[in-house]
Amino acid sequence: MEEDTLNIINKICLYKKQSMKEPKGRPKSGRLWKTEQTKRFSGLKNDKPLRSSWRRKMKDKAEKQSIKNYEQELKQAKRDAIELKKQRREENLKRKLENERKHEVVQVITKTAKIKRMKKKHLRKIEKR
What we know:
The protein has helices spanning 2-21, 54-102, 113-117, 120-125. The chain has 129 residues and is an all-alpha fold. Helices cover 62% and strands 0% of the residues. The longest helix is centred in the middle third of the chain and has 49 residues, at 54-102.
């Protein structure tokens, strides 16, 4: 009698296991590739991260700081180079303007009445200094 009950219990357990493996049908969301959740997220075991020694941490920190300093030096050098180019460009423009003004042929207008008789095109070319 006991063997029969054990046999029946085993068959029921086997049937339950088989029914769990069978697909339940098409999911309502239509996402067939998604698997059914067997365990809760809170039930998953989380591994503790490996702990590093204090020396290792300090070494990594010093390395990061040195890399940061090197990057800042590179950026500063780039900024200085750009600033230097900008100054040279401005100096060259000033020198060019001075040279142009030195070598200009200038005609001084002594009689201001001439200006009143001039045409518009001619007046546009006149510069006052």
